[in-house]
Amino acid sequence: MDCRSTRKPNETRAFVSKIAPGEHIAQFYADDSVLLEALTAFAAGGLTAGDSIIVIATREHLRALRERLVSARVDLANAIIQDRYITLNAETALSAFMLQGWPDEALFRCLISHLLERAAANSRRVRAFGEMVALLWAQGCTAATVRLEQLWNQFCEESRLSLFCAYPSAGFDQDASRSLAEICAVHSRVIGAPSRETANSSALPAA
Which range is least confidently modeled, 4-8, 30-34, 98-102? Predict the structure, then answer.
């Protein structure tokens, strides 16, 4: 898959807000504001459509997303009571299924199946955002990251889960072409991937 993307910010927001069932997309972002705009559109669009949303993200991003959704007048209180808005700290989630630096398939399936069972009550469609892969990638766990994306794909195929992942583009400064190819291969679409020239720039910090 080609990692290049020509989507403008407003096109990206519209795209993620209407993500199709079973689709698994990734976004590369240069700063948090870009991610949060897309994530807000993803969550708000789903809740407005009657979907359930699972958000597995860092503590900072969970807090910022909640603030943005409240500002957008999304009824989070009822969504939380109905299990239509379920959040989990990404580091906590990783600790539940990572064994010796590798995702344990049985433990991962147990965690995600439980979340999906709650979210999919009353035959609701489910969308999920996962930031665990970005944390693994930042730790230099390339193979484990790709494996985790593959495990996510199984849920997209089996349950028609709509999945949105995100990576800071600064994490792709070493061996960029191979890194980008590996990530592209496990997603149905990619938004905002860094160019090889940008990813190889010495101005970007090492992951």
Answer: 4-8
Indicate the helix (H) or strand (E) that contains 105: helix 105-119
**Where exactly are the structural domains of the chain?**
21-199
Q: Residue 129's beta-bridge partner residues?
A: 55, 164
* DSSP secondary structure letters along 152-201: HHHHHHHH--EEEEEEEGGG--SSHHHHHHHHHHT-SEEESPPPHHHHT-
Q: Which of 149, 169, 145 is nearest to 27 (CA)?
A: 169
For residue 189, give both structure tokens.
């679409």
Q: What letter does residue 39 receive in the DSSP assignment?
A: H
pLDDT in tens, 2-20: 454 444 555 566 667 778 8
pLDDT at 18: 73
Query: Residue 50: helix, strand or coil by DSSP?
Result: coil
Q: Name which of 98, 104, 102, 152 is nearest 128 in CA terms.
A: 152
Residues paired with residue 167 on neighbouring β-strands, in sequence order: 28
- CATH code linked to domain 21-199: 3.40.50.300
33's tokens: 């504001």
Q: State how far the Cα of 68 lies from the Cα of 44, in Å rounded to an integer.
A: 10
